[in-house]
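Bit of a strange request maybe. I'm writing a small parser for structure token strings and I need a real example to test against, not something I typed by hand. Could someone generate the tokens for this chain?
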Amino acid sequence: GLRTLEQERAKHAWECVQQCLSQAIHQLETAIASEINSERRKKLEERLKNLQSEEGGEKWKGRYGSTVRKLPSYILTNGLGQTLAFLKAKGKGEPGDEHEILYQHLAEWLKRQLNINGDLLGWLVSDKADSQKYRLATMEALALLQWLKRFAEAELPKGREE
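Reply from user aminoacidic:
Good idea to test on real output. This should exercise your parser:
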């Protein structure tokens, strides 16, 4: 049967929360496989080992969860574009960073809902994102984050606020 949008949202959020750590690990493994600089590869391998350890993995999930919790008020205060730019800046393009993973989770959903090709941030700052679409993207992001928050609170360890 046809699932409602709300059910789709919940399903996407559930999968994001369940898979967040394994996605981070996968990103790191992929980066290591293609890294030619040995110094940089060593750093990535250390981060990978840390995430694969129980303590490191739990800490990572806690940080992901606390970022999820902070994001809605961020969006309401600063707008969606600035919030996504903040995630990108905090993640610094580092594979397996929780801000990068969360950016990806939001981007996957918003691009699918709004039929966006290419980079979400690029789309948001372009002329293609008229005010109506921008508002819609903002509402979608907030609606998804509600589910992400619920599931993060139920499933992930409580992260200490940084």
